[in-house]
Amino acid sequence: MEDISVLICDDSALMRNLISRIIDGTEGMKVVGKAMNGQFLIEKIPLLNPDVIVLDIEMPVMNGIEFLKYRREHNIDIPVIILSSIAERGAAVTMQCLELGASDFITKPNGSVSADINSVADRLTELISSYGGQYARRKGRTVQSSDFFSHLANERAMTRKLQSAMGTDAANKFLASERERREKPRFEAAPAAQKGPATINPLREPGRIEAIAIGISTGGPNALREVFKNIDPNLKQPIFVVQHMPAGFTKEFANSLDKICPLSVKEAEEGDAVEEGHIYIAPGNFHILVGTGNFGRKTVHLSQEPQRNGHRPSADVLFESMAKVYQNKCLGVIMTGMGKDGAAELAEMRKQGAWTLGQDEKSAIVYGMPKAAFELGAVQRQVSLEQMASEISKLAKEHA
Predict the structure, then answer these.
(1) Whether the domain at 4-163 and the domain at 211-398 fall into the same CATH topology
(2) Where do the catalytic residues lie (predicted)?
């Protein structure tokens, strides 16, 4: 099994070392090189042939924007993950990077003792395993699966919880004993026969489609750009979107989608009247729900209730709302993303009689969320990313 190879580009020696420690401390990936600006990065790419690049934006000589323009002009297909600040200007520049072909982004940690290092580490390794892993496999290399890295992330989270509750030494001893117990030889039962997806018997037949809900995570920024630039300009139904993204970025993300989408795209606000042909992006750190106001008028509701499946916004919260408000008169779509967010409540939508779609494994950056939903029987049909816009548009038009 080969490691996913990572090339880091940042003008800060502290940041290069911090990111390197995170990557080299994760089984299945390694840093193969570092560069202090885009010019050095260009020189190192053909020598190191990385699977993924972690790129700072503001650097001397050649900054991140200039490198991405060079990358596009020279048809370099190595995926790029942006390191971004949380500042408002940083959000706008980050969206420009996505428009220039960057795959995704993370917010920069503040230093080696920052309180958010753990969350940055989890997010960074998730993105590296997703984009770098897909690129390596496309090049014919054998690397660990997204499920492997998801398991590692879960173990890290459990370790942190135990260390907080028991103390570092006691937690480490307990975890070591658990690893030893798991590694002892034992008789293995014969593998169970592989089962197909569960069966859901809807309570009612699918009706006309009055609204559409999309849940998406890792791989989502560019996937949504692909869907919304090709969506039917005459589509009448409102679309609600949960894209896992930190606060401070979703407004700029909605604005960037609005530039390429024939429909109106905006970051959702509390009390927004739901209008046909409008797309509402859940704000970072807020769940999005649909409520019914005066005279039956649908309105947007935002909530800061606890995270669901480790996320706020959560696709499960949106899908749960759709199942209650629209029942069989809506379309639920689950797309690329690590984990299981959205799967259970997409199954509930299907149970209520809603139409449902899931992204297929081949086109998903991470076939986690759509796989979980498919196995629950929540997905009527799996669709490639290339066909998702036309399939959504077709269903919306046929069942308007």
Answers:
(1) yes
(2) 217, 244, 341
211-398 under CATH 3.40.50.11890, yes or no: no
pTM of the model: 0.89
Active site residues: 217, 244, 341
CA separation for the pair 141, 3 (Å, rounded)? 9
Tokens 């950056």 appear where? 365
CA gap 378, 380 in Å, rounded:
7
Q: What is the pLDDT of residues 332-377, one digit of tens each?
A: 999 999 999 999 999 999 999 999 999 999 999 999 999 999 999 9
- For domain 4-163, give the CATH superfamily: Response regulator (3.40.50.2300)
